[in-house]
Structure prediction request, 365 residues.
Amino acid sequence: MIPMVDLKGQYLAIKEEIDRGILEALEKTQFILGPNVTAFEEEAAAFLGTRYAVGVASGTDALHLALAAAGITAGDEVITTPFTFIATAEAIRYVGATPVFVDIDPRTFNIDPALIEAAITPKTRAVLPVHLFGQPADMAAIEAICSKHGLLLIEDCAQSFGAEAAGRMTGSRGALGAFSFFPSKNLGCYGDGGLVTTSSPELAEQVKVLRNHGSKVRYHHSVIGFNSRLDEVQAVILRVKLKRLREYNEGRRRVAHLYSSLLAGSGVVTPFEDGKGVHVYHQYTLLSDHREAIMKALGEAGIASAVYYPIPLHRQDVFAADYAGVTLPVAEEVAARCMSLPIFPEMTAAQVEEVVAVIKRVVAA
Ligand SMILES: *Cc1c(COP(=O)(O)O)cnc(C)c1O
Prediction:
């Protein structure tokens, strides 16, 4: 059996340190905004090269609080990608704004910068790229558009902790970055968790106030806020894993490059690397006209696979009526042909070879 991710194997390798840290946190009983949250925030900011990092309750909340802190509100438009997890667009709607979907680059699966300017209107306030599957979006091009038009740049880094775009970590280039620590993310905790990054002291302060009931001083509330704090126990786990994240991401890249070299010439389209950044392969996603047959054969061989994502957001039931006239051909085609293979840092060469052998058998038939 080969799973999409091996969370159990990873836990067993770091069990002593995790268990000891959790027990210490239980003994200390500082469960809300305790010392591990503060330490993790400092360590994450240092790792990512941002001045501030603020722990929150989930990646969805990180996006929501980032947009709220930036003052995005009803009547505003936010340009984003249709090929992402629903949370990206949900967060835009939470603040009352409207997602404007711009089609993707067929090679990177990320928002196509060449199409952004045509989507800008007087209501546009921000551009929200997603670094999908750990592949950095084309930040240099997006930054140039944002500064030309006076738009905020907010990054969805839920799948890209440690990915680099032109020499800088994703989440350190926009006004704000939003990260998720959902367990299966490339930096994941053992429950829900998230992080907002920024180098603006004002925005950092605003996110801190919003995550804690709109309060800077206890029982004094300046705005309507939320209960959205990173949990102390999750922060313990994240500190242990952050120390190993470079090694984990290297492991993912090693697995991905082995997949790509073994699959070369087989007819499936393997992931693209533009050489401008560092892809951390949160997912290894390929394109094939034989997706269903490949997934069926993998399943019969005890190998997991998944489709991220089968329906672009403008075609989801929740948005279908609002975007009825919108056609985004690249996102639609990619959604119809994409599939993701198992990838995790501990995956062995023999496991990769086993997956590839099944795929080659199907595409050759
Ligand atoms: C996982 C994910 C989110 C949401 O994160 P949660 O922690 O699950 O709330 C947002 N955007 C993208 C692209 C994601 O993959």
Observations:
- The CA atoms of residues 80 and 101 lie 5 Å apart.
- The pocket of pyridoxal-5'-phosphate is lined by residues 58-60, 84-85, 87-88, 130, 156, 158-159, 180, 182, 192, 194 (CB under 6 Å).
- The mean pLDDT is 97.
- The chain has two domains: 7-102+110-242, 245-364.
